[in-house]
Design brief:
Length: 676
């Protein structure tokens, strides 16, 4: 085997492009659109079709497409990984016989041309040994300077398996189809990428193409992984909500968006689904700020659960942290009830080997956590991703698992493909014939839930971030803004009557505020969170209380008016708490009142000042659970009986003065008479 692999690596170097300048200059992209057969058999010819696109701003002349394949196959995943690590190109030897390549002609800037290459089996000159053969296309062309190198200016690679004897066992095989949220709500509440998202779910759009491809596969061959934020966004756009004044939405676009939601939820019901938390929260940020995590986590749970309920789907929860943020603590905190998987990349798992399978159990202090490992066979290989490369990835990965299990009877090697969430299969995805992957005799297709219900092995290694250049979690300032938003929305929720839709939208805003998307756009994330908090504050400020400037009672007890104004769009149930600067003042409790949207309600509060004379009164609005909010009404109350007493006192004092004066005057008169 070592000799075969050495020969293979020698052959791989033949297709390389040694000149760095040529590599930088060439911007021709190659996409494979068809490959026949899916599984190679001895004596079978190979036909490969595709497109080449000129992304340079100059013409490439005399463009030709050649098929390349090595003489010997890979027989293990380790060989494939080593080849990808140690060589820029490893697709093998170029087939140059006449009629075995396609002359495409000149390629103008921005232009795309199709090619077809057909090579008879005997011209392949392969050993015919069992294994997986890398096979692909190399493009030769003449540059504007008239230089035509024998080195390829572009290439695309995939794999084709050859297993001569039917295997003794079938390999668990599955596809995961992620439908994640590509945009966000701005500080003003509208979707930043409303136009782009409408295009994505419309005819010929990226998400529409991905959905069409997923729906074309047989039932129970894969699993949809849904971000409920995407369903909510597309549904709102279909109803013309949150689009902004600068975006015009046609009736046809609204219908396309509505159809997308309907078809995606139908697929989720057909194949079962997994669901990430609303807008994929930043788990490390919540882990590091545990004092803020509980209320924010409740809002995230509500946003996720309400969305699933609204669209009538039931999905298994799954956590999908960024590859550069995975740590043992993050995995432990994402565990949930114990059956909630976490999706990590192979680079996150030190000590993991494919023989352990793509589904493994990782032990934590809180119990075992199922981990789904994302480890693409064709990651980093040349060429654009296409339906053909996905099909060949699945069937080739499963073939390598057959070979590994034949040697290692304890191996759990499988073939689970997690599709790139940003991938566009293109409008011609049907030509890729994805379902051919499930026709291989060694493939046992199943959904992820089915695979998870089987016994899975233990992973004894360690979890780590995928790279040294680890991005920092969403900062505490943003989490504090999200917490302020959550508290304000909680107050509003306690006030508003029959406003479940608004409560759900508020939870969605909180969930988005802690999304991991903000790691790469922190200032926008903070503005978005603060904008949502400001919108909530303004809503709460629309509920006010007003009292009189001052109150004078005609006796020791009496009443005064308080007016509650509700300028929101919802009916509210609100209470009033009346406090006095003098604790001896007696103020009976005030029953909560209902105030219709846009209405005012005046209530009378009774008070007994007793012998206190006067006091300062503070009237505050409170929720049903006794939380005060808003600006209170502050005024003075005094009893008019105090004034009467004072006037009587003044009168008596005056009378005494008159009497005293009269006596003195009369005394003076007597003295004068005697003197006379």
């Amino acid at each position: 085997m070592a000799i075969s692999f050495t020969l293979l690596m020698s052959a791989l170097a033949l297709g390389g492009l040694p000149a760095a300048a040529a590599e930088e200059k060439a911007q021709l992209s190659v996409r494979l659109t068809a490959l026949s057969p899916t599984v190679l058999k001895k004596g079978a010819d190979i036909t490969m079709r595709g497109t080449v696109t000129n992304r340079n701003d100059y013409v490439w002349d005399n463009v030709q497409a050649y098929l390349v394949i090595p003489r010997s196959p890979f027989t293990s995943r380790a060989q494939v990984d080593d080849a990808k690590t140690n060589s820029n190109s490893y697709t093998g030897e170029r087939i140059v016989e006449l009629d075995s390549f396609d002359s495409i002609g000149d390629l103008l800037p921005g232009a795309s041309r199709e090619f077809t290459v057909h090579v008879p089996f005997e011209q392949l000159q392969i050993t015919g040994a069992d294994g997986v053969y890398p096979v692909g296309i190399q493009i030769l062309a003449t540059d504007p300077e008239g230089i035509r190198s024998n080195d390829a200016v572009s290439r695309a690679t995939t794999f084709i398996p050859l297993l001569s004897d039917p295997p003794d066992q079938q390999i668990p095989t599955s596809i995961a189809w992620p439908f994640l949220m590509p945009t966000y709500r701005t500080a003003g509440g509208n979707y930043s990428g409303a136009r782009s998202l409408l295009d994505d779910v419309g005819e010929g759009g990226r998400l529409r193409n991905l959905l069409g491809l997923a729906r074309s596969t047989p039932a129970d061959t894969g699993t949809v992984i849904i971000d409920p934020a995407l369903l909510v966004a597309v549904d709102e756009l279909s109803r013309g909500k949150r689009v902004g004044k600068s975006v015009d939405v046609t009736e046809a676009e609204q219908q396309a968006a509505e159809s997308f939601v309907s078809e995606l939820t139908a697929l989720a019901r057909r194949d079962r689904c997994w669901v990430v938390e609303f807008d994929r929260p930043d788990l490390p940020a919540l882990t590091e700020n545990s004092d803020l995590a509980a209320p924010l986590g409740d809002a995230i749970d509500k946003a996720t659960g309400d969305a699933l309920g609204e669209f009538g789907i039931s999905c298994r929860p799954v956590s999908w942290p960024r590859a550069d943020s995975a740590t043992p603590r993050v995995v432990e905190n994402a565990r949930g009830p114990g059956d909630q998987p976490v999706i990590l990349t192979a680079s996150n798992l030190s000590g993991w080997d494919r023989r352990e399978g793509s589904l493994v159990k990782y032990s934590t202090d809180e119990g075992p956590v199922p981990i789904l490992v994302d480890d693409a066979l064709d990651e980093s290989v040349p060429g654009e991703n296409s339906v053909v490369t996905l099909r060949q990835r699945i069937v080739s990965e499963s073939a390598l698992a057959v070979l590994e299990r034949s040697i290692d009877t304890d191996s759990e090697a499988d073939a689970i493909a997690i599709v790139n969430a940003n991938w566009d299969p293109g409008t011609s995805w049907e030509a890729g014939q994805l379902n051919n992957a499930f026709s291989a005799p060694w493939v046992n297709a199943a959904g992820l839930d089915s695979l998870l219900s089987r016994p899975i092995g233990e992973f004894d290694g360690t979890v780590r971030p995928a790279s040294d250049a680890r991005s920092e979690p969403v900062n505490r300032a943003q989490l504090l803004a999200a917490t302020h938003l959550e508290k304000t929305e909680s107050l509003l929720s306690s006030l508003l009557i029959d406003a479940p839709a608004r409560d759900t939208a508020a939870a969605q805003d909180v969930a988005q505020a802690v999304s991991q998307r903000w790691r790469s756009n922190r200032s926008t994330g903070l503005n978005s969170a603060q904008g949502a908090a400001n919108r909530a504050d303004k809503q709460l400020e629309k509920v006010t209380i007003e009292g009189p400037p001052r109150v004078t009672l005609s006796s020791k007890s009496g009443g005064f008016p308080l007016t509650i104004s509700n300028d929101t769009d919802y009916e509210i149930n609100v209470g009033v708490r009346v406090d006095s600067s003098n604790p001896a003042l007696i103020i009976p409790g005030v029953e909560p009142v209902r105030v219709a949207a846009g209405e005012r309600h005046t209530l009378t509060v009774n008070v007994d000042v007793g012998d206190q004379g006067s006091a300062s009164i503070t009237a505050s609005l409170i929720t049903s659970d006794d939380r005060a909010f808003g600006k209170p009404a502050v005024f003075n109350v005094r009893s008019s009986t105090v004034g009467v007493v004072l006037w009587v006192g003044f009168a008596l004092a005056g009378l005494l003065m008159v009497v005293a004066f009269a006596r003195r005057f009369r005394g003076n008169q007597r003295s004068t008479v005697r003197d006379e």
